[in-house]
Write a structure and sequence with these properties.
Helix content: 25-40%
Radius of gyration: 24 Å
Strand content: 15-25%
Shape: globular
Length: about 575
């Protein structure tokens, strides 16, 4: 596609408003920007769409949202699911609400039933809504924890999980049949409401979701038992958790909740943080100030669409420490298994699920505790597939926990996506439990290491932005496939798994066997000492992610080994 001709077509289209046209006129002489926005449309995959919010086929705007929704409509009609309908939600980002309405309008114009929330909601509530309403599909307008310039479009299917690769391919094909500048059906929102095709969901539906979350509690009275002394600081980072997280805390008995008021109001500009990501320590600065003032030992932060949760906990030295996604996953896993066993609610078929790039400590915990652990690709839809397989044989109650290293957790089968509302509740419950034992979460983490051994998980991000970023990422992955690394940090690679080709190579013998999993663009290296290096391109950001999973007998030795792995990994990926 000639980006200049497409740019001119947009610039001269009567479909654009004056402000949209002015935006394009401002880049008329900027070849780089025109190329970035108009060379190729956004890829639509199982993670949907994600890009910056500008005019152009490669960006998030009302035209690309409408075109994609036409593709979703075609998928639904092929399944004769017009009457089952689609649930739609959005987060606090700029344009999220208007993109949600555009989506609802397009579907209504196609005669497809729509359920749309009256304002922003957590992503997991959308997943719950699809299942609760018996809808055939769901759409969520969100870019999760990305910077303010971004927005995104996630598509879900009837089980509440994001769509599979085959469905994504159909949507991608179908949307290409429509002119992106076609505005037909984009103004059908009010008509759809008047005709009863669009139903608006409000607080009464929130109560159904809240009850589903509360039902996953292991020890419902844990917080109330220590409520007089337990103090918690919470921030939604200007996002969708602002209402339901505090409400859940109140319902389980928390008396002393302190909020970061400057971050409690939903705001797509995220004015108090550079990036609204609870993985980053700097988003906790204001929360730490409040915690030190009121004497709290715990700060909880959820991201803009409230599917990820981060935690800072006070250590024995009085300073706050980040509990990363792997550590929190291990803490929750150990707590849930132990407490369910204690109260006689641990099924003989109990199981948990983690992504292949998440901590190996989970293996040790599960093995020691006698619980089945599944390893799946990154993405909660894969965790959902395992839960679904149990559900189909009438045993979904055996599901204990699904988690990813990227701060995502789910402890119930009511949804098929990570849930920061529920995870915040369970983290608070776990904190209260350890408080009753005169322990902090940091104490509990230290005890885990003493019990199961020391584990370290680090990540190296190699950004490749710009027009050629996708091709550069492909070249690096191809080069690694052509030349398998010999070693990392001085330890020989004993096993090289290429999940795209579906082959496992045992380097010493040269023997190959199948991974047994569906193709995915992931390279997975097992070292002779059992440590692991995983390489994959990000599905949501312009970068390659390298994961280092290591274990050792003492923290100092482990840190030294991990740093050596990281340096070798960076050199190989940048070669």
């Amino acid at each position: 596609m000639n980006y200049n001709s497409e740019f001119e077509r947009w610039l001269n289209s009567s479909a654009l408003t004056e402000s949209e046209r002015e935006e394009l006129l401002a880049i008329k002489d900027n070849e780089e920007q025109k190329a970035l926005r108009f060379t190729a449309p956004m890829d639509f995959g199982t993670a949907g769409l994600r890009s910056t919010m500008y005019m152009g086929i490669g960006c998030m705007n009302r035209f690309t949202v409408a075109q994609t929704t036409r593709g979703i409509a075609a998928l639904i009609k092929a399944d004769k699911g017009e009457d089952r309908g689609v649930a739609i939600a959005c987060d606090s980002r700029n344009n999220s609400a208007s993109f949600a309405r555009v989506s609802a309008s397009i579907l209504a114009s196609e005669g497809i039933k729509v359920y749309i929330f009256d304002s922003l909601r957590p992503t997991p509530e959308l997943s719950f809504a699809v299942r609760e309403l018996g809808a055939l599909a769901g759409i969520n307008i969100t870019a999760s924890h990305n910077p303010k310039e971004y927005n995104g479009y996630k598509a879900y299917w009837a089980d509440g999980a994001q769509i599979n690769p085959e469905q994504a391919a159909i949507v991608s094909c179908e949307r290409s049949k429509f002119d992106v500048l076609d505005t037909q059906g984009m103004d059908c929102y009010e008509w759809g409401i008047n005709e009863g095709i669009i139903t608006v969901l409000g607080e009464d539906f929130d109560e159904k979701y809240i009850q589903a979350v509360l039902a996953t509690s292991v020890c419902p009275d844990a917080v109330s038992k220590v409520a007089d002394s337990l103090k918690v600081v919470y921030t939604p980072l200007h996002g969708a958790g602002y209402k339901l997280v505090p409400e859940i805390f109140r319902r389980i008995g928390l008396k002393n909740l302190y909020t970061v008021d400057s971050q409690m109001t939903p705001d797509g500009d995220f004015p108090t943080v550079k990036k609204p990501n609870p993985e980053y320590a700097d988003v906790f600065v204001e929360g730490i100030e409040i915690a030190n003032r009121v004497g709290s030992d715990l700060i909880i932060a959820t991201d803009p669409d409230s599917d990820r949760v981060g935690v800072m906990a006070r250590g024995g030295d009085g300073k706050f420490r980040n509990i990363n996604g792997n550590q929190m996953g291990a803490l929750l896993l150990d707590y849930v298994i132990s407490e369910r066993r204690k109260i006689g609610k641990l099924s003989d078929t109990a199981f948990c699920v983690k992504s292949i790039v998440s901590t190996d400590m989970a293996y040790k915990i599960a093995e020691t505790q006698g619980v089945k652990l599944y390893d799946v690709y990154t993405g909660f839809k894969f965790i959902g597939e395992v839960v679904k397989s149990y559900e189909e044989r009438g045993d979904e109650g055996s599901f204990l926990l699904g988690f990813e290293e990227s701060y995502g957790y789910l402890l119930g089968s009511y949804a098929r996506d990570k849930d920061a509302v529920e995870a915040s509740m369970m983290i608070l419950e776990m904190t209260a439990y350890y408080r009753s034992l005169n322990m902090t979460l940091i104490d509990a983490l230290d005890k885990l290491y003493e019990t199961y051994g020391y584990y370290s998980e680090k990540m190296v991000d190699i950004y490749m932005e710009g027009l050629d970023g996708i091709e550069r990422r492909k070249r690096i992955m191809a080069a690694l496939r052509e030349n398998t690394p010999v070693s990392f940090g001085g330890y020989r690679v004993s096993e090289a798994r290429d999940y795209l080709s579906g082959k496992i190579l045992y380097t010493e013998s040269g023997r190959c066997e199948s991974t047994g999993l569906a193709p995915s663009d992931v390279l997975y290296y097992v070292l002779e000492n059992g440590d692991k290096i995983v390489v994959r391109p990000s599905g949501t950001e312009p970068k390659i992610k390298i994961y280092v999973l290591a274990h050792g007998d003492c923290p100092a030795e482990l840190d030294k080994k991990t740093e050596a792995y990281k340096e070798d990994a960076k050199r190989i990926a940048e070669a």
